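User: I'll paste a sequence; please echo it back and then give the predicted structure.

Assistant: Echoing your sequence first, then the prediction.
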Amino acid sequence: MATFFVIVLLWHPTIINYSFSLFMCTQYEDGYKYLKKDTTIRCWHGNDFVYQVVIGATFIITWAIFFPLAIFYRINQEKGRLNHPNNLKLYGIFYIGLNDNSFYWEIIVLNIRKIAIIVVSTFFSSSKSSLKVNLINLTDHDCRGTSESWQFFCRGI
């Protein structure tokens, strides 16, 4: 099971990137939008629309939302026993190196940042680099002077 988590953690950004790329379309001279990855597929039309929405949404919900929340839920159940050898072997990749009160950092906060970077690079791929950098910087702000309700994102490492 630990090997599965390592493989998923390595492939997670790629899976998310491909999932979001199912919604990345470009308009051509004929006035229709076509999938950027495969210009033979017309976006938001016929059966391809169903495939885009069903497959894309399913993968996004599963890999961007459900998987991180399931891991967070499981580790949160073991919060008092994070240093137990079985927990370290199974889930240690998600929290080793963090203090005990910040076990969620890799799973929740960094996952949100990874997804934000992937969304920006996918949907704003043809935009100027300065716009992309500014959008990505929104997810990586300085926490000094941050209100108490947002300190959750700042306590990490």
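The chain has one domain: 2-153. The chain has a mean pLDDT of 78.
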